Amino acid sequence: xxxxxxxxxxxxxxxxxxxxxxxxxxxxxxxxxxxxxxxxxxxxxxxxxxxxxxxxxxxxxxxxxxxxxxxxxxxxxxxxxxxxxxxxxxxxxxxxxxxxxxxxxxxxxxxxxxxxxxxxxxxxxxxxxxxxxxxxxxxxxxxxxxxxxxxxxxxxxxxxxxxxxxxxxxxxxxxxxxxxxxxxxxxxxxxxxxxxxxxxxxxxxxxxxxxxxxxxxxxxxxxxxxxxxxxxxxxxxxxxxxxxxxxxxxxxxxxxxxxxxxxxxxxxxxxxxxxxxxxxxxxxxxxxxxxxxx
Length: 294
Known about the structure:
Elements: E1 2-6, E2 16-17, E3 35-36, E4 54-60, H1 87-100, H2 104-110, H3 112-126, E5 135-141, E6 147-153, H4 159-162, H5 190-198, E7 208-213, E8 220-223, E9 227-232, E10 235-239, H6 249-256, E11 261-263, E12 275-280, E13 284-289
Parallel strand pairs: 1-7, 10-11
Antiparallel strand pairs: 2-3, 4-5, 5-6, 7-8, 9-10, 9-12, 12-13
Helix pairs in contact: 1-2
GO molecular function, one term: catalytic activity
Protein name: Aminodeoxychorismate lyase
InterPro entries: Aminotrans_IV (IPR001544), Aminotransferase-like (IPR036038), BCAT-like_C (IPR043132), BCAT-like_N (IPR043131)
């Protein structure tokens, strides 16, 4: 896995919303909503119906039916095996964004247990859950609260890539590990597309990723399609929330499960050929190496 470094970027974050609002409560202040572990932000006030949609990309994989870890933090009272990778985290990501942009219908559509069930029902209706082929599933939520999906095949990965107990430190990873990176949350993504074009990354399946750098302080923010993890002071770290990158689903999972810690990662600290990991909600966790470009 090679990396190229580009910037600047905007801040997009995610919070875990626990309450299921009523229609009448959706115009109340966001401060009245119960929030866990992630920072609050005042909602945007939109003067007209938006021209973009919200989305998250997740993995469908029948292998996940064998994983008890995949239904941890399940918001329904009777969790059953699920083929969609860390689905509660993806619901939280969409819900936070809907609150951030102050979209009442979208908030109502996916809030609480009934909203999560709505998301799960949409996925099971639109995705062939009898298929043995893993898929990248893009879930789109519009301003009116309508959920749609689109999907495409992706290569298989072992469960250990999706739920690693730890990230091996540098120089301990088998050199034969394949560098698979089919890495794909509004639909307005010109900045990410532009970054990949400038880095001359031809396709989403290319084994190259570009990291975004803050133009303000030259800190690592995120990858165009991934969360990066660098080894610092004897542990794996990922860019802090204050760096301005997105709070991805696998990033949250890694922090919650002690895989990594948050830290400021200056661009100047990167070295040619240093080992790293990247992750996202489609491919799980993937090993790579840094390539510094002029």
